[in-house]
């Protein structure tokens, strides 16, 4: 089955849009809820064998001290209280959190290998989009989405199978996390063309897709809550896989077998318009007159002569622009790559993604560092980590509520409100009005993007300043909220930038390349995690300070867009 036609998809556009938002919320970037998933994995005992008690056991009054090697020590309290403890060894003290509520030991070696898998998985969450973009631009999103849903289902099953015997199956975490990232990103990436069905609301719809994608990190927090209430880990993963199969069926019946063009593509407009004639003109004829006069006037404004080398799918905006030759070809992909706008967007995307993902992967380390500076007791430290991890997961839903905000910023003053006049007056004056509106609309879009990126970078810098005040834990709640806003604003603004500044045939490739580059940059967070745990003694202050300075470079893009719009 090749899937429904574009006309059928246009009729179902609200169903497709709503289900896309729900599916993104449940699957797209659940891996970014790593802080909650990590606690479940540790409690299940994944890689707890790295912290096992060996034969060399020394008993003290209060402690069983297990020496694994010269790098890692496991300190297991005899009463098996879960917490972070200080144990005197010679002339110094070593700190560590070494027991989960289930009784599975945990140590730094386990933290590092699990964080490494998260780094790889979150990189794949963005990195595979460069391949997906090329495929989607040429063949559409149907087969990609079907494959992605199946990959995510396999990921859930691997998590479930691994938890049945963590002693032997901990290695399954590696492919599970990778498939989770690869399958999840397919959901959001293949939903990007859906806003093309909504014309004037395109930026708002893109923002809703991005918002649901970013908010999906809340899912593992919800799963963690169910897990703490006694729901088995296997049952949770089985439920997630079952819902994933339903998304496979939804894609099979509703995802088109060809790309969804932009609303300005004239061949797409003609196809939809003439399909509407069969129903509307039989009643009043008004729709027929409106469609034929509009399409006919636009077609007569250029000389459309289909040939092998001529791009006759010219956008309506290009047709209405009297300052350009109607036969002018859109810029090539290489030409787009060489523009300063693209290069600045890559820098902004890479640095911001590293900032956000590194914080998510190291949240437990940050919270423990704050607890150490506040000299909290072991029990208080445990409660603090659990409480703020829960809050961080809960606030991920804020990404969804931030989506309309950034959508409103990017769609500001773009909605046309034509005055009601007689039919003849409309036919005589509509064309010059469109020419004027086309120029003003482009200018307004660029100005809106400049504002969006300026706000995003301001929030990122404020976030960087707040997390340096580690001793003020309630203030970190504000950082959690800003973190969600920056994630939503960044992806929505990048998507809006590529949709506005470049031909729609490059959208998938540009978005994929930006995600791929940021994915490669995200890999830096693993050595940063090791550096904080080893050389910096668990204190991330200097890492945060360095990243804050680098974040200032993000202001280059809004300044460039502002100057570009003024010209």
From TrEMBL:
Give the GO cellular component terms, alphabetically: plasma membrane
Give the record's keywords alphabetically: Cell membrane, Glycoprotein, Membrane, Transmembrane, Transmembrane helix
Q: Any idea which GO molecular function terms this record carries?
A: L-amino acid transmembrane transporter activity; neutral L-amino acid transmembrane transporter activity
Reaction(s) the record says it catalyses: L-leucine(in) = L-leucine(out); L-isoleucine(in) = L-isoleucine(out); L-phenylalanine(in) = L-phenylalanine(out); L-methionine(in) = L-methionine(out)
Spans through the membrane: 21-41, 117-136, 143-164, 170-192, 204-223, 229-253, 387-410, 449-469, 475-498, 510-529, 541-562
- Listed Gene3D superfamilies: MFS general substrate transporter like domains (1.20.1250.20)
User: Which Pfam family, any one of them, does this sequence belong to?
Assistant: MFS_1
Signal peptide: which range, if any? none
Subcellular location(s) per record: Cell membrane
Query: Per the record's keyword annotation, is Metal-binding included, yes or no?
Result: no
What coarse category fits the chief subcellular location reported for this protein? membrane
Q: Which superkingdom does the taxonomy of this entry point to? A: Eukaryota
Q: How does it sit in the membrane?
A: Multi-pass membrane protein
Q: What family is this protein classified in? A: Belongs to the SLC43A transporter (TC 2.A.1.44) family.
Report the PANTHER family cross-referenced here: LARGE NEUTRAL AMINO ACIDS TRANSPORTER SMALL SUBUNIT 4-LIKE ISOFORM X1 (PTHR20766)
Name of protein: Major facilitator superfamily (MFS) profile domain-containing protein
What is the scientific name of the source organism? Ciona savignyi
